[in-house]
TrEMBL record:
This is 4-hydroxyphenylacetate 3-monooxygenase, oxygenase component. PANTHER family: 4-HYDROXYPHENYLACETATE 3-MONOOXYGENASE-RELATED. Gene3D superfamilies: 4-hydroxybutyryl-coa dehydratase, domain 1, Butyryl-CoA Dehydrogenase, subunit A, domain 2, Butyryl-CoA Dehydrogenase, subunit A, domain 3. The gene is hpaB. Keywords: FAD, Flavoprotein, Monooxygenase, Oxidoreductase. InterPro entries: Acyl-CoA_Oxase/DH_mid-dom_sf, AcylCo_DH-like_C, AcylCoA_DH/oxidase_NM_dom_sf, HpaB/PvcC/4-BUDH, HpaB/PvcC/4-BUDH_C, HpaB/PvcC/4-BUDH_N, HpaB_Deino-type. The keyword Flavoprotein applies. FAD binds at residues 156-159, 193. Pfam families: HpaB (PF03241), HpaB_N (PF11794). It comes from the Bacteria.
Length: 466
């Protein structure tokens, strides 16, 4: 089938009988209508619709080597520099619709699956490894335009390097049996962003494994028997766009994933009970360069949004004459240009790798991924510092519809804006920096690709000094 539309995505997600727990109750009814999910699902559907925009068809899709259908470009295995540039254009096009706020837009996981399947030769001839399953599954996902959540991390029980789980009942998800139908998994994983609102969940060992029961990689449908997504409280505080301009549209859920004797069919198992493979597959595969390539593209779009909101505040209350404001704006510019330069370098230095992929330069992308988690909180702070009391002087749309409108119009106007426009701008800034949604965004950018210190160690240990 060709690349899906937004409606097809929504219908498919609604038809799944995924077990999702929210606020002490299992979700019933259509997930696309649930207050905690509907904003992000609608925004995600809009991404899929772009694949059908006649003017963007060559930006968003390419021709399937198998069926000749037009399919999503994030599934393409790039072989040339041109393919890589097209990949960037597509990622940024999608990210611009949500200002880079949908951290797990489908291109993230599509890129990861593309990269893992291109690296399937690493599994060739190894014990309990099924490279053909990975390749077949990638092709299935690519042709059906499947959406994914994923979970790579064990529950945060004890992070000491000497910890070994010794409970009778598993906490971290592990293999408890092998049966004719497949592997049996019991225990939990965290965290799955967009958990429950995707077709599939991809599960891979986090590395650092010394027990074969924890060594596995597979993908299963979100509504597989025994699989449960336990959601946090939603940070979408309302669905009026004026009041919650970002969270009403881009709040992605994060869920704990529980496997209660989940049977993973054999044809969905990519490897299992192979410690050497579990500890090396992700790092030796094309996973990191292509995951990070998607991430850095999205983060650049997010920085541009931050810059535009900040500059609007500066102009709105006319503070552009102050030297410290220039310094703060310069920090934002430096952040954008640094990330863009690193992306350009990654693409300019791209070379064909052992798997035949045109691989962007990993060091450039790693430097960007070490940089961004540090600069993002600082840029958020800059908006708070420049917005000052404006960040909390933010009446709701209902206030503007009430009899106090005259007061608001008089007292909340700014040098450049009538009151309602000014409040709309500051509500956007609040939802970007101070709302529960905003705080989660900051935590996301700090941690979603792993522990910052581990990422830095990795850069150091693999860097070639001249
Ligand atoms: C909003 C959000 C969304 C996420 N979405 C997903 C998702 O969709 N899928 C997914 O798989 N994961 C997801 N994650 C999880 C993310 O991958 C982890 O947060 C990250 O890997 C860090 O692991 P942790 O949270 O367990 O922190 P921990 O490892 O428990 O770290 C706690 C503290 O201890 C320190 N520490 C722990 N171990 C070490 C070490 N070995 N060396 C040095 N310091 C150490 C850390 O630096 C940190 O300060 C998400 C996280 C967040 C915050």
């Amino acid at each position: 089938m060709p690349a899906i539309s937004g409606n097809e995505y929504i219908e498919r997600i609604n038809q799944l009988k995924t077990t999702i727990w929210y606020n002490g109750e299992p979700l019933t009814g259509e997930i696309s209508e649930h207050a905690a999910f509907k904003g992000a699902i609608k925004s995600q559907a809009a991404l899929y619709d772009l694949q059908h925009d006649p003017e963007l068809i060559d930006v968003m899709t390419y021709t399937s080597p198998k069926t000749g259908n037009k399919i999503g470009i994030s599934y393409q295995q790039p072989k040339t520099q041109d393919d890589l540039i097209k990949r960037s254009q597509m990622i940024q096009k999608w990210a611009k619709t949500n200002h880079g706020m949908l951290g797990r837009s489908p291109d993230y996981m599509n890129s990861i699956l593309m990269a893992l399947s291109a690296s399937a030769s690493l599994l060739e001839g190894k014990e309990n490894c099924f490279p053909e399953n990975l390749i077949n599954f990638y092709e299935l996902a690519r042709e059906k335009d499947l959406s994914f959540t994923h979970t790579f991390i064990n529950p945060q029980v004890n992070r000491s390097p000497f910890y070994l789980e010794e409970t009778d009942e598993p906490i971290a998800a592990k293999i408890i049996d092998e049966i004719d139908d497949g592997l049996v998994i019991k225990g939990a994983r965290l965290l799955a962003t967009q958990g429950g609102m995707t077709d599939e969940i991809l599960v891979i060992s986090p590395g650092g494994i010394n027990d074969p029961d924890y060594a596995f990689a597979f993908s299963i449908p979100s509504d597989t028997n025994g699989l449960k997504f336990i959601c946090r409280e939603s940070f979408a505080l309302g669905d009026r766009e004026f009041n919650h301009p970002l969270s009403s549209r881009f709040e992605e859920m994060d869920a704990i994933v529980v496997f209660d004797k989940v049977v993973v069919p054999w044809d969905r198992v990519f490897f299992y009970k192979n410690i050497q493979v579990a500890n090396s597959f992700l790092s030796q595969s094309a996973f990191r360069p292509f995951a990070l390539h998607q991430v850095i593209n999205r983060q650049i779009v997010k920085l541009e949004f931050i810059a535009s909101v900040t500059e609007e505040i500066v102009q709105s209350i006319d503070i552009s004459g102050y030297g410290h404001v220039h310094e703060k704006m310069a920090e934002i510019i430096i952040a954008i240009e640094t990330m863009k330069a690193l992306l350009l370098q990654a693409e300019t230095k791209a070379a064909v790798d052992e798997f035949g992929l045109m691989r962007p330069d990993l060091t450039s992308l790693q430097v960007a991924s070490c940089t961004f988690p540090k600069i993002y909180p600082r840029l958020i702070e800059i908006i708070q510092l420049l917005g000052a009391s404006g960040m909390v002087t933010i009446p709701t749309e209902s206030d503007f519809e009430s009899s106090i409108r005259k007061d608001l119009d008089q007292y909340l106007q700014s040098a450049k804006h009538p009151a309602k426009d000014r409040v709309e701008l500051f509500r956007r800034a609040w939802d970007l920096t101070m709302s529960p949604f905003a705080t989660r965004q900051t935590q996301y950018e700090r941690f979603f690709f792993g522990n910052p210190s581990t990422i830095a160690s990795d850069l150091y240990q693999n860097y070639t000094f001249n």
